[in-house]
Design goal:
Blueprint: E1 5-8, H1 18-33, E2 37-40, H2 54-65, E3 71-72, H3 88-100, E4 104-107, H4 111-120, H5 142-150, E5 156-159, E6 166-171, E7 175-180, E8 188-190, H6 198-208, E9 213-217, H7 224-233, E10 242-246, E11 249-250, H8 260-266, E12 275-276, E13 283-284, H9 287-290, H10 294-302, H11 317-323, E14 334-335, H12 338-350, H13 354-367, H14 374-384, H15 393-396, H16 410-416, H17 419-433, H18 440-454, H19 462-470, H20 478-485, H21 487-500
Parallel strand pairs: 1-2, 2-3, 9-10, 11-14
Antiparallel strand pairs: 4-5, 5-8, 6-7, 12-13
């Protein structure tokens, strides 16, 4: 079997989209499954779209996600450099070879020339028909071409796509693909600034770096026939990599491709890490900063298009590597269900050791300048760990452990706060005030004793009791919550609620 060498080749034009992380993941899983090589190549041939900081962001994002790079930018390797902007001379050589062998040609058309072509023929593309009406080395004499080149007139190099020919390729996900050459336009291979386009650069680099599989997004499938022609014309058809074009990531409702605008509108991240736009200064929240664990995000992304063929959903990276095959990636778009991502995060968060979870809580408290003993933090984590989705939830959902409520759930007040409630809470608070250190069992027994004595059902006042202590209608185990807070604090909070809400009693 040919050595597996795959590459993730993003452009440094901004933050890395979460779909790009999925592409990198699938490449990585295939490489690891077959003891192959994972390469990071930066495709920065379009210098007009280059964004400072984007490359470093890509590298950091992959590292955070646990996608280890074996060769490429930041690592080095036998085929360096791995930035396409540093390989410019290479591409020129191959573009010239294509021209010399009549598979490509010089095109001297100006923007005005191209605009006039489009006016003459609406929706026209530069192809086997329109090329003969334009200013290029196929319509000009050799002498005219030589003169234009000698005076430095600007030109691009275009691929000379054959007419009336079927172009075949086999995609590992989509099967056999056949395209008529008349549907393929004469793409620019070398721009007027001397930089290659994606089409030429990626084919040359994939060949020189001995890439065995090109795993990329579905949006590149229409370009694949063009790349097949380039492999053929450069004499590399036998070394052509296998293609696998991944399904699109769809909006949560399944209607259309997922975009940043959709994610912003629905309130979830679209980037792995926080990204600050260098022009506007706007900060887009990343999955890391939103509290997603890398192992949860990876497990979630793996299932966006792939399935193991079993009922198993929870996979470590090692298990994903063992189970992964390109053949089990579907053709249909994958619906981006953020609630499923949260489900994965809940699982991986709960599986963390108590020490790690305590660390999450203490880190949040430190930011709030709140002191908390290790013992108290341990109790809070124990009672809340089955309720949280993100590390920050220990603090955000458990603020009442540190700050007494000053307002109360209006719905509970209107439905549950009455004379019977005040009677029970007053008697209960007085009982625990004079008692020994409050523990959950004692709190429960005392409450049941008081309600029995007053002839009031315990269930009728539980929500009001919780509200008086936490301010809310729901939360972790109420008896354990009171144990953590202690006798004096529970007494104080109940009496504050009674005093504050007395006007509500009828």
């Amino acid at each position: 079997m040919r050595e597996v060498r795959v590459r993730f080749a993003p452009s440094p034009t901004g933050a890395l989209h979460i779909g790009g992380v999925r592409t990198a993941l699938y490449n990585y899983l295939l490489a690891r499954k077959y003891n192959g090589t994972m390469i990071l190549r930066i495709e920065d041939t379009d210098q007009t779209r280059y964004v400072p900081g984007a490359e470093a962001y890509i590298v950091e994002s992959l590292a955070w996600a646990g996608i280890k790079i074996d060769e490429g930018v930041g690592v080095g390797g036998p085929y360096a450099p791995y930035r396409q902007s540093e390989r410019k001379a290479l591409y020129k050589t191959y573009a010239q070879k294509l021209v010399d062998e009549d598979h490509a040609y010089y095109a001297f058309d100006t923007e005005q020339d191209l605009e006039e072509m489009r006016k003459r023929t609406p929706n026209a593309q530069y192809d086997g028909v329109t090329r003969m009406q334009m200013k290029n080395s196929l319509t000009l004499s050799g002498k005219e071409v030589a003169q234009k080149l000698s005076v430095g007139e600007k030109y691009v190099i275009r691929l000379k796509v054959p007419g009336k020919e079927e172009i075949h390729l086999t995609d590992l996900i989509r099967g056999s693909v056949t395209v008529q050459s008349s549907q393929v336009d004469d793409k620019v291979l070398m721009k007027s600034d001397g930089m290659p386009t994606y089409h030429l650069a990626n084919v040359v680099d994939d060949y020189l770096m001995k890439i065995s599989h090109v795993i990329r997004g579905e949006e590149w499938l229409p370009s694949a026939p063009l790349h097949v022609l380039l492999y053929r014309y450069l004499g590399w058809e036998k070394e052509m990599p296998q293609f696998a074009h991944l399904p699109l990531l769809l909006k949560p409702d399944g209607n259309g491709k997922l975009s940043k605008r959709d994610a912003d509108k629905m309130g979830f991240p679209i980037f792995p890490l926080n990204w600050q736009d260098p022009e506007s200064g706007h900060v887009a929240i990343g999955y890391r900063e939103a509290g997603y664990l890398p192992e949860a995000l990876i497990n979630f992304l793996a299932f966006l298009g792939w399935n193991p063929g079993t009922e198993q959903e929870l996979f470590s990276m090692e298990q994903l590597i063992e189970a992964f095959t390109l053949e089990r990636i579907g053709k249909a778009g994958a619906r981006f269900d953020i609630q499923k991502a949260q489900w994965f995060n809940q699982h991986y968060l709960r599986s963390k050791s108590d020490d790690v979870l305590i660390g999450y809580l203490l880190d949040s408290l430190k930011k709030e300048n709140i002191d908390c003993s290790q013992e108290k933090a341990k109790k809070i984590v124990a009672v809340m760990k089955e309720r949280v989705t993100f590390p920050k939830d220990f603090w955000e959902q458990g603020k009442f452990f540190f700050t007494a409520p000053v307002s109360f759930d209006e719905q509970v007040v209107s439905k549950k706060w009455n004379d019977d409630t005040v009677k029970v809470l007053t008697a209960f608070s007085n009982e625990i005030k004079s008692g020994s250190n409050l523990i959950a069992e004692t709190a429960k027994d005392t409450l049941e004793m008081v309600t029995s004595k007053l002839g009031i059902k315990t269930g009728h006042i539980l929500q009001a009791l919780r509200m008086s202590i936490t301010g809310g209608a729901s939360g972790p185990d109420l008896m354990i919550t009171m144990e953590i807070l202690g006798n004096a604090e529970v007494f104080k909070r109940i009496h504050f609620a009674i005093k504050t809400l007395k006007v509500k009693v009828t």
